């Protein structure tokens, strides 16, 4: 069943076949966790959010009409869960402003931008280090974007989704997606303004 | 790869350049932009800067073990929901502690309302002796002395209750004189004063 095409898996899942849905979960779980981790910046939250999204997707699979790809449809669930999570986190931070921020060192060692492997281990060290630093700086800048802009940027930049797909996934207009994308890129460009690799 | 080159693009071109970077311009728009770029160093520099800055983000894919664990977690939750085991709502985890705390508060309030004045060994506790009225009178015991203790402790806290305490003690003496001290029930009632 692992090799079955997506359409037949979805049809089976819609009929209540948990095994078929399990194949979809296995297929998309790594991407879902990676996206959630980019969104939240935390590995533990990312796994929980991805699981929540799949469980929610299972409950709502009956409403999936197949007009878009499964992943696009699923992304709507996942992105909204991530955005909700970030809103709650922002509220929590405001409420408990005196508490130590989890992002300020709580998971520092597990930060993906810190642990990112070199792009090409065989390349010239200076160039490789510069690229790694740039990736880290970009990752950090992305986490500084507002939730909706972050979601749009990640869907476009990481997932390579089309603007029309992002609009469907987030339930917003294509114009709004373009606007979020342009704003996010402009903000990232400003955030990286002082960055000069190797300097 | 120097992203410090931040020449500003021509007015109205930033959005087109960004959308072009992500392949979101139509063929006509792309053609027009290409023509503009060929004659505009500022927009070309901006485009180069975008290409340099927008590198791949760090890889955040989970490892195989973490991914399998997450998949297993999903399938277990689905299985639980199918078997009728409803997930406990989030607020349920706070219900038991909240109920316990409420019960403690109520209990503490009840005890506070019904507790007699605190019994301490007050320094002003003058011994009140119950007069023994002869061989027929019940001998003074610790039980008999209890009202005196209560009275003494009360006087230690409030002067105005002192007079009342003395009055009760006098009553006890008077009752003893009347040979009514044998009536323990009467004594108990007096203690409760």
Keywords, separated by commas or semicolons:
heterodimer, A: 199 residues, mainly alpha, Rna Polymerase Sigma Factor, Chain: A, Arc Repressor Mutant, subunit A, 9 helices, globular, B: 193 residues, elongated
Describe this structure in words.
The complex is a heterodimer of chains A (about 200) and B (about 190). With about 200 residues, chain A is mostly helical. Chain A has two domains: about 1-110, Orthogonal Bundle (Rna Polymerase Sigma Factor, Chain: A), CATH 1.10.1740; about 125-199, Arc Repressor Mutant, subunit A (Orthogonal Bundle). Helix content of chain A is about 70%, strand content about 0%. Residues about 105-125 of chain A have low confidence and may be disordered. In chain B, helix 1 (about 15-20) crosses helix 3. Chain B is mainly α and about 190 residues long. Chain B has helices at about 15-20, 25-40, 40-55, 65-80, 90-115, 140-155, 160-175, 185-190. Residues about 1-5 and about 130-145 of chain B have low confidence and may be disordered. The interface between A and B is large, with 55 and 37 residues.
Blueprint (SSEs and pairs):
The complex is a heterodimer of chains A (199) and B (193).
Chain A: H1 6-14, H2 18-40, H3 43-59, H4 70-95, H5 112-115, H6 125-143, H7 147-157, H8 163-170, H9 174-191
Helix pairs in contact in A: 1-2, 2-3, 2-4, 3-4, 4-8, 6-9, 7-9, 8-9
Chain B: H1 14-21, H2 27-38, H3 41-53, H4 64-82, H5 92-114, H6 142-157, H7 159-177, H8 184-191
DSSP strand (E) fraction of chain A?
under 5%
Which overall shape of chain A is indicated by the principal axes computed on the Cα atoms? globular
Question: Which structural class do you get from the secondary structure elements of chain A?
Answer: mainly alpha
Distance N to C terminus of chain A: 53 Å
Encode the helix/strand succession of chain A as letters.
HHHHHHHHH
- Separation, N- and C-terminal Cα atoms of chain B: 93 Å
CATH-derived topology of the largest domain in chain A: Rna Polymerase Sigma Factor, Chain: A
Sketch the major β-sheet of chain B: none
Q: Using CB atoms under 8 Å apart, which protein chain pair has the greatest interface? A: A-B, 55 and 37 residues
Gross CATH architecture of the largest domain in chain A = Orthogonal Bundle
The CATH homologous superfamily of the largest domain in chain A: RNA polymerase sigma factor, region 2, helix turn helix motif
């Amino acid at each position: 069943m692992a090799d079955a095409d997506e359409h037949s898996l979805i049809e089976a899942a819609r009929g209540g076949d948990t095994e078929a849905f399990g194949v979809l979960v296995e297929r998309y779980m790594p991407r879902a966790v990676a996206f959630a981790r980019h969104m939240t910046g935390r590995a533990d939250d990312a796994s929980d959010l991805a699981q929540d999204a799949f469980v929610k997707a299972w409950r709502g699979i009956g409403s999936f009409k197949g007009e878009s790809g499964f992943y696009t449809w699923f992304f709507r669930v996942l992105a909204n869960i991530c955005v909700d999570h970030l809103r709650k986190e922002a509220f929590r931070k405001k409420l408990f402003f005196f508490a130590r921020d989890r992002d300020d060192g709580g998971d520092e060692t597990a930060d993906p931008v810190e642990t990112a492997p070199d792009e090409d281990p065989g390349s010239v060290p200076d160039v490789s280090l510069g690229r790694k630093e740039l990736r880290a700086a970009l990752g950090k800048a992305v986490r500084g974007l507002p939730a909706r802009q972050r979601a749009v940027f990640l869907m476009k930049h990481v997932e390579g989704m089309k603007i029309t797909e992002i609009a469907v996934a987030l339930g917003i207009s294509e114009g709004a997606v373009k606007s979020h994308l342009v704003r996010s890129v402009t903000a990232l460009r400003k955030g990286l303004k002082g960055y000069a690799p190797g300097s | 790869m120097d992203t410090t080159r931040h020449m500003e693009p021509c007015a109205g071109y930033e959005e087109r350049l960004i959308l072009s970077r992500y392949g979101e311009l139509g063929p006509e728009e792309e053609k027009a932009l290409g023509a503009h770029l060929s004659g505009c160093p500022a927009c070309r520099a901006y485009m180069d800067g975008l290409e340099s800055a927008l590198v791949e983000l760090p890889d955040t894919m989970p490892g195989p073990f973490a991914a399998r664990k997450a998949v297993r977690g999903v399938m277990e939750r689905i299985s639980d929901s199918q078997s009728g085991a409803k997930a406990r709502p989030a607020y349920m985890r706070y219900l038991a502690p909240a109920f316990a705390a409420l019960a403690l508060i109520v209990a503490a309030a009840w005890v506070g309302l019904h507790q007699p004045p605190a019994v301490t060994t007050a320094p002003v506790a003058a011994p009140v002796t119950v007069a023994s009225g002869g061989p027929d009178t019940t001998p003074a015991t610790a039980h008999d002395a209890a009202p005196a203790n209560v009275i003494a402790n009360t006087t230690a806290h409030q002067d105005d209750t002192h007079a009342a305490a003395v009055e009760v003690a006098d009553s006890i003496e008077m009752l003893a004189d009347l040979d009514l001290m044998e009536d323990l029930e009467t004594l108990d009632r007096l203690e409760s004063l």
